[in-house]
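Weekly sync, protein design subgroup
Attendees: M.S., D.O., the rotation student, P.L. (late)

Item 1: inverse folding check
M.S. brought a backbone from last month's batch and wanted to see whether the design step gives back something sensible before we order anything. D.O. pointed out we never logged the input encoding, so this time it goes straight into the notes. Structure tokens as presented (339 positions):
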């Protein structure tokens, strides 16, 4: 089964061709980082316009790299949400136009489900599994007992870990994208600055207090005319942020006893996490290649394959995109908003 998939939830324009839920024939990503670096973050209106400008070329390049004909494509899949609504609609409308022009069925895919299924590109998912989702908008622990079967065990009570990374990076004037730059700075520092320990219920997370502590530390030092070592601050923040991830995930492992742990989302690219995870968790761990951690269409195509197997029915072309969607409440209901 050959699937053309489209991902435009934020500032990457991506089209991929995947085969049988496993093989990536092409995965073209047109990044907007240089543009948004000028503004210190993603500007939604500019992101939408750049998607419009580049998406046709990305379609053509993905098909050419895959060395297929348009008549070989069995299904079109597109990110339906969550994300920037303007960006989402560019990808959705382009995918709809392609599907309609070539008489191919189309389905929408939840962005986070795509991140989860990025792990299936190199390793078959083994159930039951525990999925740790860490990104700019999500910090969650999800139990999967089978394909397309999701149960939330815990989530952030306020900020997501990626959001906290970006805000602390901005405080340190590291520029955009902040998370990777903070990770890099932390590698050259020592975690010598005290950070708060957050009291957490169950398997949940919280990063608002940690972020506020950094803000207050920088403010108080500035009031006294002192300057904190930014490398030490970055290393201390990073250690505290992931100590919470390590502790809460281990509690979930002890509770669920999964066969595997999979890690999904943009923060899965974090080098500190990758260096520490096998020493912290004593079970098989799957984590995507760096290229599949970031937003990309290949992960949407892989997820679409398993979604189609569970419900092999094309969607009507009037489905919409949504800035907020909860895939645990029925992310595949063909367009009704789920929050």
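Designed sequence read out in the meeting:
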């Amino acid at each position: 089964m050959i699937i053309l998939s489209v991902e435009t939830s934020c500032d990457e324009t991506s089209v991929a061709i995947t085969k049988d839920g496993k093989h990536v024939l092409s995965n073209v990503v047109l990044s907007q980082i240089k543009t948004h670096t000028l503004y210190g973050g993603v500007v939604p209106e500019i992101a939408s316009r750049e998607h419009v400008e580049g998406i046709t070329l990305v379609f053509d390049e993905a098909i050419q790299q895959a060395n297929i004909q348009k008549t070989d494509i069995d299904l079109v899949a597109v990110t339906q949400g969550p994300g920037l609504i303007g960006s989402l609609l560019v990808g959705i409308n382009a995918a709809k136009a392609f599907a309609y022009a070539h008489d191919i069925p189309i389905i929408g895919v939840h962005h986070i489900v795509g991140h989860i299924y990025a792990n299936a590109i190199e390793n078959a998912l083994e159930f039951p599994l525990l999925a740790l989702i860490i990104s700019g908008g999500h910090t969650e622990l999800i139990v999967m007992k089978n394909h397309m079967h999701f149960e939330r065990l815990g989530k952030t009570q306020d900020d997501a870990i990626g959001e906290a990374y970006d805000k602390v990076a901005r405080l340190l004037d590291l520029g955009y994208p902040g998370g990777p730059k903070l990770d890099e700075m932390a590698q050259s520092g020592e975690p010598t600055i005290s950070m708060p320990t957050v009291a957490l219920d169950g398997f949940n997370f919280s990063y608002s207090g940690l972020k506020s502590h950094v803000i207050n530390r920088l403010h108080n030092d500035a009031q006294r005319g002192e300057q904190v070592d930014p490398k030490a601050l970055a290393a201390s923040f990073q250690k505290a942020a992931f100590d919470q991830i390590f502790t809460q995930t281990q509690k979930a492992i002890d509770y669920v006893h999964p066969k595997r742990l999979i890690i999904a989302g943009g923060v899965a690219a974090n080098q500190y996490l990758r260096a520490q995870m096998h020493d912290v968790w004593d079970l098989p761990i799957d984590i995507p290649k760096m290229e599949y951690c970031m937003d990309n269409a290949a992960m949407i195509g892989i997820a679409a394959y398993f979604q189609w197997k569970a419900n092999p029915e094309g969607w009507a072309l009037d489905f919409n995109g949504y800035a907020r969607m909860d895939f645990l409440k029925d992310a595949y209901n063909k367009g009704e908003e789920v929050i």
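Discussion: Residues 230-256 form the longest helix (27 residues). The domain at 2-117+293-310 is CATH 3.30.420.40 (Nucleotidyltransferase; domain 5).
Action: P.L. to compare against the previous round before Friday.
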